[in-house]
Design brief:
Blueprint lengths: L1 H9 L12 H9 L8 E6 L4 H14 L4 E4 L12 E2 L2 E2 L2 H15 L6 H13 L6 E5 L17 E4 L17 H9 L6 E4 L5 H10 L6 E4 L4 E5 L4 E6 L2 E6 L7 H15 L6 H7 L10 E2 L4 H6 L3 E4 L5 H12 L5 E5 L7 H5 L7 E4 L11 H7 L6 E3 L3 H7 L7 E5 L2 H10 L1
Parallel strand pairs: 1-5, 1-6, 2-5, 6-7, 7-8, 13-17, 14-15, 14-17, 15-16
Antiparallel strand pairs: 3-4, 9-10, 10-11, 12-13
Helix pairs in contact: 1-4, 2-5, 3-8, 3-9, 4-5, 6-7
Length: 421
């Protein structure tokens, strides 16, 4: 309860939830002794795959007994998820103490909630100067609160696509502008570019960072992977090849994220063995990213049918999700809820041959589109219906033997589902 109260208090320090600027967070971090300059960081920017790449890196590093601090956003179920130090998520009382200390130093100055959280992370991370910090950039990067580091170990660029377009001028909502916002201010260190969804994206990234003096690694040029039979895949870079077991997470695209994580850790010369990599990729914790649910209250409603939850919410996320769904020989039923600022029609356009589609409301999210409005947008799709809640939606779907049910469209909906489950 105390944690909830202080979170609500911090959310009121600035009239806007998001206000892209570096000034406020720099002022606060200066009061805190500029902790961001006392840490070793791997920065992760992009549209899709950031958390998966971080989670793969983190799992491998933990297997090698290397201590990490991890900062990601948004959280799925609990705000504590954003604050991992020394390989351990902060407990409620520890988070309260951290928030209260930084709040006192901030002295009621205007600052957005995300900026406050970022300053809190840097402040705590500086207490562990030898740890490796895995830091996810938020909305964009150029004016994101995480972009106040003076140096870092490396910058990872995950898959970039169109998302959050409402934060760009109407006449500038282009891939080129998005790539510029995410990559033009990358630090001089090492830049690792993951697989992109088109050659155009790769070339746009290459053009944007051409004057950056960093060492640059590109997927399929400096590192790559290929599929093998019998649940193995093959990874290769200048240090040699690795025959690796299939990871414990679903989706072909996850091999791309895992390969990017491996490439980063190997080029940095971090002391990890082939065994650490092989074991680490079978222990990745990836919540709401094609996560299969095998137990819980809501799982009981679908009985022996497979149940997946996936927080994808943009065009590229929908594409890779449906590449996976298309590989399955079964009937698919979809429950979907989305935020208002997403391209709903483009997202749903990738779903082919689904047996039913149920739209739902996302509770406690004022910026979500109502399930009824979403149903109206999808009215040309066969077997579309609206139900107010996830539980009502599950109960309404006549699942047959071997049918699959997936909940998707929003990380906020995924969090709601996981909490209910």
């Amino acid at each position: 309860m105390k944690l909830q109260k202080i979170v609500k208090r911090l959310q009121k320090l600035h009239p806007k939830e998001i206000d892209l600027s570096l000034d406020r967070v720099k002022i606060l971090c200066d009061k805190l002794g500029n902790p961001q300059n006392k840490i070793k960081a791997i920065s992760v920017v992009g549209t899709n795959g950031k958390q998966s790449t971080i989670n793969a890196s983190y799992s491998i590093l933990k297997e090698a007994n290397i201590k990490c601090n991890v900062y990601t956003s948004p959280h799925i179920q609990r705000i504590n998820e954003r604050f991992v130090f020394n390989n351990t998520e902060l407990k409620d009382d520890e988070l309260v103490s951290l928030f209260e200390e930084v709040e006192k130093i901030n002295n009621n100055q205007s600052i957005t909630f995300f900026e406050m959280l970022t300053a809190c992370f840097f402040y705590k991370a500086a207490q562990y100067p030898q740890n490796i910090n895995l830091i996810e950039s938020g909305l964009f990067h150029r004016f994101d609160a995480t972009n106040i580091l003076e140096n870092n170990l490396a910058s990872i660029v995950t898959s970039i696509s169109k998302d959050h377009l409402d934060w760009l001028p109407k006449n500038d909502r282009t891939l080129k502008k998005i790539v510029f916002e995410k990559t033009s201010s990358l630090l001089k260190s090492i830049i690792i570019v993951s697989k992109q969804n088109s050659k155009k994206t790769v070339e746009t990234i290459r053009e944007t960072i051409k004057d950056n003096q960093s060492k640059k690694l590109f997927f399929n040029e400096d590192f790559s992977y290929s599929n093998l039979e019998n649940n193995f895949f093959y990874y290769e870079d200048k240090f040699g090849g690795l025959k690796l077991p299939s990871p414990n997470i679903l989706g072909q695209y996850q091999l791309e994220n895992i390969s990017t994580a491996i490439a980063t850790l190997r080029v940095l010369g971090i002391k990890i063995s082939d065994k650490h990599i092989k074991t680490g990729i079978t222990k990745i914790n990836c919540v709401a990213r094609l996560q299969e649910i095998k137990s819980g209250k809501l799982k009981k409603l679908v009985k022996n049918n497979r149940l997946l939850v996936d927080g994808s919410h943009n065009e590229d996320g929908s594409r890779v999700l449906n590449e996976y769904l298309g590989s399955l020989d079964c009937k698919k039923h979809v429950i979907i809820g989305m935020m208002s600022n997403k391209d709903h029609e483009k997202y749903i356009s990738y779903f082919k041959n689904i047996s039913s589609l149920t739209t739902v409301d996302i509770p406690n999210q004022p910026n979500a589109i109502s399930g009824k409005q979403l149903k109206e947008k999808f009215k040309n799709i066969p077997n579309v219906q609206y139900k107010k809640s996830i539980e009502q939606a599950i109960k309404s779907i006549p699942l047959q033997k071997n049918d699959l049910l997936i909940i998707t469209g929003s990380l906020y909906l995924s969090g709601e589902f996981l909490n209910l489950n």
